[in-house]
Amino acid sequence: MTAPLDPATDGAEMSFDGRMSYGDYLNLDKILTAQTLRSSAHDEMLFIIQHQTSELWMRLALHELTAARSAIAADHLRPAFKMLSRIARIFEQLNSAWDVLRTMTPSEYTRFRDDLGQSSGFQSHQYRLIEFAVGNRNPAMLRPHVHRADVTALLLAELARPSLYDEALRHLHRKGLPVPENVITRDLSQPWVADAGVQALWETIYRDPETHWEAYEMAEKLVDFEDYFRRWRFNHVTTVERIIGFKRGTGGTSGVQYLRKMLEVQLFPELWHLRTAL
Q1: pTM strictly above 0.85
Q2: What is the tens place of the pLDDT at every residue in 49-63?
Q3: Whose CA is closest to 232, among 118, 105, 87?
């Protein structure tokens, strides 16, 4: 019989008294004790961890979005492309999380649903920051967060700065492309409204990608992100309908009906509409 391997003989560190370990670096004690169950239901642990891990992925998405937007504002498109590709992969991870949650049946969810009170993913301020950052800006969505002055300040600050799409169009403007002036000077706090002049500009780029390669690639990176973002929304609707049907959400929304309306929202409408025009 072969003797058990001793990792120390291969140079592995085995003593961490007074030294930083893996658990110390990752603050695992805090993370792994952050699941406070409010019922005796077996599946509540799944529900909590799925949402906690989704919030962690959203935190990373915001980190990448902030950096990508800054890079575009500085006309450094190559680093921005890498970050935008990473954000699309992050949303692929978020999409996979719904597959795990869908293993919970309606019967299992009802055993702890009342313990959620009025809490709902609708109240996720990180999700709201992502939507604001990419251009879906609805000031009415500030209201669920007014009880938190720090969160409200973050959301207001986001509404005051150019969105990712605004920065992409400002970059094209700096490069001498004909971005309509009303787009450059628009009220940043308001939701994006599709603009015929912007669509005409993107059509020009798509008809001659060799001449406008970086702008063309930037557009496709934005479409990639929205593609994964739409899938996340669709999977959200499907999961909710599968588990609670057409009941109202715990946060008071109409549930599936509300989420279906969100499927109609386009973040970068001109980049989708131009495909019909080409």
Answers
A1: yes
A2: 999 999 999 999 999
A3: 87
